[in-house]
């Protein structure tokens, strides 16, 4: 009888252990089956070089491109790299090769164009070309990239500019103003003029700070596609000479979500958690 009880108890123990082991296996399996969202990975490639054409002229070239290792949609990639229409290879090696090609073309063009006048230079000059891409933010699957360029090839001063683009990496497209607001362009332009002095460019004269409105070269500030946004405002960015003289620098004008609240796209409001 004792042996029978012992056998029964031992059998119960093995059954319980087997059940427990099976439960643990199920837990491990369930954990394995959970799909983690793919990590958004960004890298970059750069090229920096210079050539001395003669004792009076040195030319420098710098360029930087971001590399988006997890973006596979070709139409989205074409839009991101809009400055180079013939890109076929979006890999890190492919983009590095493109930068080297662009650098060599730039140096060759300067050498060719300077043959007729370079011997007439009377003082030392350093020319340059600087082209860049910078990721400013990636919030709620909205990727904001700022494209910059600067150059000097003789004259009174150099020149530079900005291009702002926001990409919806959830739906693989570039964001347009119509995706954010239905406000007519004329009303946006009224708000831009109203808000022009909210972010000062930093320009000063002998009397101190100079308002952006004092340096305008246009009667209407255009609502362009050169914009970006955060949780508070929609921002329009203007490069030198676009609406003001070079001395004013670049101008950024905000329009708050509250000012746009009745015209905001419902899907956009939801994704950006705008509560107006």
Briefly characterize the structure.
This protein is of the alpha+beta class. It contains six helices and eleven strands.
What do you see in this structure?
With 276 residues, the protein is α+β, with helices and mostly antiparallel strands. Helix content is 30%, strand content 30%. It is built from six helices and eleven strands. It has a six-stranded mixed beta sheet. It has a three-stranded antiparallel beta sheet with strand order 9-10-11. Strands 7-8 form a two-stranded antiparallel ribbon. The longest helix is centred in the N-terminal third of the chain and has 32 residues, at 2-33. It starts with a helix and ends with a helix. Mean pLDDT is 89; it is low at 1-25.
Please name the defining characteristics of this protein.
3-stranded antiparallel beta sheet; disordered N terminus; 276 residues; alpha+beta; 6 helices; 11 strands
Q: What is the topological layout?
A:
Layout: H1 2-33, E1 42-54, E2 57-68, H2 74-80, H3 92-113, E3 125-139, E4 142-152, E5 159-168, E6 173-174, H4 185-194, E7 204-205, E8 208-209, E9 227-229, E10 233-238, E11 251-256, H5 257-260, H6 266-272
Parallel strand pairs: 2-3
Antiparallel strand pairs: 1-2, 3-4, 4-5, 5-6, 7-8, 9-10, 10-11
């Amino acid at each position: 009888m004792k042996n029978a009880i012992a056998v029964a108890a031992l059998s119960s123990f093995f059954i319980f252990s087997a059940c427990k082991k099976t439960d643990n296996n199920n837990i491990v399996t369930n954990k394995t089956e959970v799909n983690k969202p793919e990590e958004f990975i960004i890298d970059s490639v750069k090229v920096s070089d210079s050539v001395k054409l003669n004792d009076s002229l040195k030319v420098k070239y710098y360029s930087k491109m971001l590399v988006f290792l997890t973006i596979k949609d070709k139409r989205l990639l074409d839009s991101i790299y809009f400055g180079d229409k013939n890109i076929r290879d979006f890999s890190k090696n492919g983009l590095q090769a493109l930068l080297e090609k662009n650098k060599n073309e730039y140096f060759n063009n300067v050498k060719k164009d300077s043959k007729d006048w370079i011997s007439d230079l009377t003082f030392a000059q350093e020319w340059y070309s600087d082209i860049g891409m910078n990721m400013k933010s990636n919030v709620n699957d909205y990727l904001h990239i700022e494209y910059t360029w600067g150059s000097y090839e003789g004259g009174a001063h150099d020149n530079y500019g900005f291009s702002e683009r926001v990409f919806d990496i959830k739906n693989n497209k570039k964001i347009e103003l119509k995706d954010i607001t239905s406000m007519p362009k004329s009303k946006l332009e009224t708000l831009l003029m109203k808000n022009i002095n909210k972010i000062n460019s930093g320009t000063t004269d002998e009397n101190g700070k100079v308002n952006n409105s004092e340096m305008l070269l246009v009667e209407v500030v255009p609502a362009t596609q050169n914009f970006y946004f955060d949780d508070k405002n929609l921002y329009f960015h203007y490069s030198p000479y676009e609406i003001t003289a070079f001395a004013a620098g670049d101008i950024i004008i905000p329009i708050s979500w509250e000012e746009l609240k009745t015209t905001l796209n419902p899907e956009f409001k939801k994704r950006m958690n705008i509560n107006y």
